[in-house]
Specification:
Blueprint (H helix, E strand, L loop, with lengths): L9 E4 L5 E4 L7 H9 L5 E5 L7 H29 L2 H9 L16 H7 L1 H21 L5 H15 L4 H9 L6 H18 L2 H28 L7 H6 L1 H13 L5 E6 L11 E8 L4 H12 L8 H10 L6 H15 L3 E8 L6 E8 L1
Antiparallel strand pairs: 1-2, 3-4, 4-5, 5-7, 6-7
Length: 365
């Protein structure tokens, strides 16, 4: 795909001041990014030199795309490993050494996909049996709004589309036997587990963009004090009115002081413990490292049970200060990750011998 587009690898200066070989792209389709992520062709995506407020939707969509793609790949591997390690399959392999079911299974039809095509009726029935209980639970879940229920139902189908074809082969093969429903339950439990994990994508995307805009606004106000030092301009006008904001953004761009956001995707398929690792890193030269670290430490100590996120948001807006909203997402994201078994850590560091501050969000999926 990249060859067809005549893309060339070049040395690129990254947000942490290092240089790496990569490809510079002004435009790329979500589908192509997802295919490359699923194939393991991408280890890092970095966005720099943009105004985050003006590109809010794009940053959110990219963040969710990356997380969803990572979860799709994780689900594919986890669901396959689960079915192959299931007791009925292990018993079959033990008693049928010449027709073992594993990744090297041979099919009379020529391929597993051809086998599935020959058994479309059974495949359709199994799909309905898999999804029906999940959809029923979603419809009865009062924590979801109607559109959220619809999205969860669609996400379950989307995840299932990334199941390894060998899973369907096993379910079809055992469909008439006594072990079918236990296998069906195991596959459904894995699907339900990853369906819950997809919920962190929204929180992560919102946290990323709110932190980025937090930092950008602080930098704008700092630069505005220089640009408008002889003029009286209210702070909210600088942040919200383009006639004041755009000149400041242009100044920051000329100084190469706009924020950089990086998504680092975990190691290769052979790297132990790194396949499901994701790091979201925000780099900035202007933000005060000690102040930002202090904000993170204060947020870690916050009791999120006392207020809902909406209440925090409304209170901040009433006080005329929405710059801290991103910090509160930290607590909510940490709690959401803990509920679905995802390890989450956040930290603020400064690159040695530089003025670059790094905000790092690390996920172990």
């Amino acid at each position: 795909m990249l060859i067809r587009q005549k893309a060339k690898f070049t040395r690129i200066k990254m947000g942490d001041n290092t240089e790496e070989y990569g490809i510079l792209l002004d435009k790329v389709t979500p589908a192509s990014v997802q295919r490359m992520l699923m194939a393991g062709y991408i280890s890092k995506i970095e966005v720099s030199g943009i105004e985050t407020a003006a590109n809010r939707a794009g940053v959110i969509d990219l963040s969710k795309l990356i997380i969803f793609s990572l979860l799709y790949g994780q689900y594919h591997h986890a669901s396959l490993a689960g079915i192959l390690s299931a007791e009925p399959v292990k018993r079959w392999n033990h008693t049928n050494p010449f027709s073992v079911i594993d990744e090297k299974t041979h099919f009379k039809e020529g391929s597993v996909r051809q086998y599935l095509k020959e058994h479309e009726t059974e495949l359709s029935e199994i799909t309905k049996e898999l999804l029906a209980p999940l959809n029923d639970n979603i419809s009865r879940d009062e924590t979801f709004l109607d559109d959220e229920k619809q999205m969860q139902t669609m996400m379950a189908e989307k995840l299932l589309s990334f199941a390894d074809p060998l899973i369907w082969f096993v379910l079809i093969k055992f469909k008439s036997g006594p072990d079918y429903f236990s296998l069906l339950r195991d596959v459904r439990l894995c699907l339900a587990g990853y369906l819950k994990k997809t919920r962190i994508a929204e929180y992560t995307a919102l946290l990323t963009i709110e932190l980025a805009q937090n930092i950008e606004n602080v930098n704008i106000l700092k630069e505005a004090r220089v640009l408008y030092k002889n003029k009286y301009v209210k702070l909210f006008k600088i942040l919200r009115e383009s006639r004041f904001r755009v000149p400041v953004i242009n100044q920051l761009r000329q100084k190469n002081n706009l924020i950089t956001i990086s998504w680092k995707i975990g190691g290769t398929s052979t790297s132990i413990g790194t396949r499901g690792k994701l790091q979201v890193v925000l780099y900035d030269k202007e933000i005060n490292y000690r102040e930002m670290r202090g904000s993170f430490e204060a947020t870690h100590a916050a009791d999120i049970t006392k207020n809902s996120l909406t209440e925090y948001y409304n209170r901040l807006l009433e006080n005329g200060n929405d710059l801290e909203l991103g910090m509160y997402y930290l607590s909510y994201l940490g709690e959401a990750c803990e509920k679905v078994g995802i390890k989450f850590e956040s930290m603020v560091n400064q690159i040695p011998l530089s003025d670059v501050t790094m905000i790092t969000l690390t996920f172990g999926i």
